[in-house]
Specification:
Layout (H helix, E strand, L loop, with lengths): L4 H7 L4 H6 L11 E2 L1 H8 L3 H10 L6 E3 L2 E5 H10 L20
Helix pairs in contact: 3-4
Amino acid sequence: MTSSPRNNRRARWPSADVLTRAAFVDDAGPIRFVDTDAAAKYLALDAHTLDCYRSLDTGPAFYKFGRYVRYAVADLDAWAESCRRSTSASPVAPRILPVDPT
């Protein structure tokens, strides 16, 4: 049985040369990017809700790494802060008070 050239290429990656030049770190520091599921848990939302916000361009800023969507934790915090309200009345829409007929 022969293997396809594509499978051979995968079997050789990463090459020994790449591995000898690679720099491995024990601690990469705090997590900077999270996937949609982790971002949703962080914001106490459903992942589907974030998907909808993303398609409507109303949610937190996100990054696309190829087909992968990732959120920066700092962007999640900034978006959550922008959603903060001090009253249930919308800060944009003016409140219409009843007119006193007297």
